[in-house]
């Protein structure tokens, strides 16, 4: 049953939404526009910034490190976050009240709401302490991976926990009645049910890792410059150059293309499900 929206309400919603759209997308459009700045001593728009960017080996090394960091940390955090979300949901204290009833939420939400600055400084202090004490965990890509895993795990656990919270507990009892032990129940019941949450958590971990600057900055070391750190350093040295705008445009284009592909894949899957039904 569809609801007809009155013209006055529709006009009011449009008046609110369009300024928001302008604020959201105008900066992105300006980044793309200034990336086509003219070449030195020439007039008119050009691809000079992209040519310079593609011949800058430092950018590709930073991109490679960012991808290694993102994929590696997201893989580990997805596994740990899935187990954490499952454990917090499956083994909650029955009839718990007060502090114990809210313990799962506190465990998951506290790292999420923690400011990145505080988290990055605490990681820096911890790694320095371990390095002075044991000689291990010197600042570098390894410490960045550990730090990224640490702040990604709660996000994955939250998505898995939310998915399992609505699951009928009797399903676990039914799996035990079918002679499934804990491991088989997890592999053949929990994993298929929370598979969308696991995939979503993995993609979210990659996004958070590539986007992160603060925690990466505090835990990085020599030879571990990622793409966000490279962009910050380049802006600090010579301001916002056309090459930085070109790099930003390429990142925006990649995200838009991935979003469009995801939309069509999801739409095709939904159409197939409706046809089967």
Question: Could you list some keywords that capture this structure?
Answer:
11 helices; MetI-like fold; 277 residues; globular
Explain this structure.
The protein is mainly α and 277 residues long. It has one domain: Orthogonal Bundle (MetI-like fold). It is built from eleven helices and no strands. The protein has helices spanning 7-34, 48-54, 57-90, 103-113, 116-134, 141-165, 170-177, 182-211, 214-219, 227-238, 242-276. Helix 3 (57-90) runs parallel beside helix 6 and helix 4 packs across helix 6 (141-165). The mean pLDDT is 83.
Short description:
The chain has 277 residues and is mostly helical. The chain has helices spanning 7-34, 48-54, 57-90, 103-113, 116-134, 141-165, 170-177, 182-211, 214-219, 227-238, 242-276.
Number of helices, counting only DSSP H or I runs of 4 residues or more: 11
Largest sheet: none
Provide the CATH topology. Answer: MetI-like fold
Number of strands: 0
Contiguous low-pLDDT stretches (5 residues minimum) are: none
Name of the CATH architecture: Orthogonal Bundle
Tally the structural domains: 1
What would the principal axes of the Cα set say about the shape? globular
Structural category: mainly alpha
- The percentage of residues in β strands lies in under 5%
Distance between the termini: 20 Å
User: What is the CATH class name?
Assistant: Mainly Alpha
């Amino acid at each position: 049953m569809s609801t007809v929206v009155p013209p006055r309400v529709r006009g009011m919603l449009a008046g609110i939404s369009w300024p928001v759209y302008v604020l959201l997308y105008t900066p992105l459009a300006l980044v793309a526009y200034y990336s086509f700045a003219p070449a030195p001593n020439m007039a008119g728009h050009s691809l000079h910034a992209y040519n310079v960017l593609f011949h800058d080996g430092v950018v590709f090394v930073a991109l490679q490190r960012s991808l290694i960091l993102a994929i590696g940390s997201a893989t580990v955090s997805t596994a740990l976050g899935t187990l954490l979300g499952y454990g917090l949901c499956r083994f909650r204290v029955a009839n718990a009240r007060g502090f114990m009833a809210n313990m799962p939420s506190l465990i998951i939400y506290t790292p999420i709401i923690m400011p990145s600055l505080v988290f990055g400084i605490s990681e820096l202090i911890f790694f320095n302490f371990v390095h002075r004490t044991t000689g291990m965990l010197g600042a570098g890509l390894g410490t960045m991976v550990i730090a990224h895993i640490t702040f990604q795990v709660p996000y994955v656990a939250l998505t898995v926990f939310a998915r399992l919270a609505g699951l009928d507990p009797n399903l676990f009892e039914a799996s035990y009645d079918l002679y499934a032990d804990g491991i088989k129940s997890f592999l053949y019941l929990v994993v298929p049910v929370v598979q969308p949450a696991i995939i979503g958590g993995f993609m979210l971990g990659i996004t958070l890792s590539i986007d992160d600057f603060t925690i990466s900055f505090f835990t990085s070391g020599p030879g571990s410059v990622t793409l966000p750190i490279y962009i910050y350093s380049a802006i600090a040295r010579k301001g916002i150059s056309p090459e930085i705008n070109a790099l930003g445009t390429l990142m925006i284009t990649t995200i838009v293309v991935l979003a469009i592909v995801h939309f069509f894949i999801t739409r095709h899957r939904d159409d197939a499900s409706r046809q089967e039904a």
